[in-house]
Sequence to fold (385 residues):
Amino acid sequence: MVKKILKFFNSLKLTVVLLSVGLVLVFIGTLAQVDEGLYQAQTRYFKSWFISNPMILGTKIPIIFPGGYIIGTLLLVNLVVTHLTRFPLTKKKVGIHLIHGGIVLLLLGQLLTDALSTESAIRFAEGDSRNFSEDFHASELVVVDKSLPDQDRVVSIPDGLLASGKEIHHPELPVTLRVREFWPNSWLQDQPTNNSVQISVTQGLGAGLHLIPLKPTISMEQRNIPSAIVEVVTPQGSLGTWLVSSQTSRKQEFTYHDKTYQLAMRFKRYYKPFDLTLLKFAHDRYRGTDIPKNFASRVQIRRASTGENREVEISMNKPLRYNGETFYQAGFDEHNDERERKITILQVVHNPSWLTPYFSCVLVALGMMVQFASHLIGFAKRRSA
Fold:
């Protein structure tokens, strides 16, 4: 049985089939970006194990197709098994071992990058402090326990679980959340329009507002604004229904067993063990135009656990690498209020495996040099003889 399994994964035919399927996946994934958008297509086709009903030229094909994870994993197993069974560890094969090791490390690094890396943003004005960044696309429904004197206890539910009519149970929540209505993308307004829906809730803010259901956006420049009507249910009965939406930062409140809870829909947050304060933001334009020439943020890092307190500058070509994350100066927003504060946008990238591509390239290059040198030395010896 073991020999059959090794023979299957050792097959060159399997390599050819996987590479061919990978080419087809790249082709249909590229075409799908027209209808599904870049972010959705990358997630659905290349960051998944299987794809159901892939989109080709605007038409859904009723098949199940292997995704990027399954193709990459099988290629990795195929390469490792082939390497162990066909290339014994000898001096003449050191170069080949190094080359294959670099390729294996490259595949593993890509898998870890897709599984562990995150991209988010910090948007704040001069004088503001933040200890979290927000996801560009994903949203979450949060219940915040405000009863503790020195900290808040937050329970987060991903927006993918907020199907209409679904009940949400969480071990840290004394209540059940029942999603009465859910809109993946929406817009709230005061006045009704032809395609708007009047909000009907029994508690909190939102009664009398009108909601426009929108088609989920596929543009990388836009965000979906999810909204929901949530009912809070206790063992004694219902406490009422509330409106939550990522469009507003105002939180809804309810009380249960003499504890105050806040209910909100917001973009997914990634909390940091430190605070960032924007001290100053400056941007230069090319003379006579509105084209940005350079922009930079002066921020203060404060970390209570270590006593760290220092200032750094983050500019267009000078990111900050700190706490395993990279902070880039991504943009800015001119905002004039009573204090005429300027707003900056920092992109935060967390990628624990960011060094693996460099190591893999070094291994492949070293293996090629060793393999070439061994053949060159052998050829020179035979030539001299």
